[in-house]
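User: Predict the complex with beta-D-galactofuranose.
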Amino acid sequence: MGKMRTQSAPWRAAAVLASVLLVGGVAACGNSDTGGGGTTDDGKITMGFSQVGAESGWRTANTTSIKEAAAAAGIELKFDDAQQKQENQIKAIRNYIQQKVDVIAFSPVVESGWDTVLKEAKDADIPVILTDRSVDSADKSLYKTFLGSDFVKEGRLAGEWLVEQKKTASGPVNIVELQGNTGAAPANDRKKGFGEAIAANPNLKIIASQPGDFTRAGGKQVMEQFLKANKKIDVLFAHNDDMGLGALEAINAAGKVPGKDITIITVDAVKDGMQALADGKFNFIAECSPLLGPQLMDLAKKVHAGEEVPPRIETEETTFTTEQAKEALPNRKY
Ligand code: GZL
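Assistant: Here is the predicted structure with beta-D-galactofuranose placed in the model:
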């Protein structure tokens, strides 16, 4: 051990002060060096985003919108793909809390089971924005706002179109339904809206309804089962374009003409779905816009600044027939 040199009192006080400042400085510097998340050194807001997965064309377009909008807004985005598993979303949200991000945003893969982790975010004083899908938490203080579509309305518009199309039907109209993933808000709500609308005509009957998980593979697989089990299928209602596109393969393989032998109604209006509609393979699509990125980033800035925001912000959407799809396709953004 080196010889300890004693110092005069004034020098010793200065040395103590210097060492306190140095340690304090390192500690402060250490926090920011550990990627603490929070507002970055240059004042940029940090957002932690948990995405459902990459299950459909809609989801891909939604992810692109969010990433591009974050870059344009100068928001530092931490992004996680949950591969359609709620436990992965909960893990990602907990990571964002640990990292002390400024804002957490996510699209909940299912409606239930979020209160505990949302309470942890609230206790950590990190605001949460729900986008695309919502949660069934009774405590609305667990999130600042919801940005997305009215899925019940989408289902209702699909059902109302079918009621109009089949108003002269003399006998039963057999409907099969491809649902989104079990427990998801769009699956629950589109089913609800569609079912309420078709009740106007007792000839319209849903003879089979199964989850296809919003994927093409799921739509094809379940449609194959529907075709094997049901001799007479007049209508397919698919909760998204991708399951409808997968079902096309099964319908063709069964020797039936989609859009003619089986009327096909879907939701989303992504490019591939609109092409199928323009080609007459689909008959009607209720739009669900994935382009939520810019609005989400505006909301994040407002929430971070402590501004009041509306509890629910719904996106503008429309519907398409074959003729309307032909007109809209050239300018379709997604
Ligand atoms: C709806 C969204 C749904 C889409 C599907 O807002 O959550 O999930 O309709 C997607 O295509 O997989």
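The chain has two domains: 46-149+290-316, 151-288.
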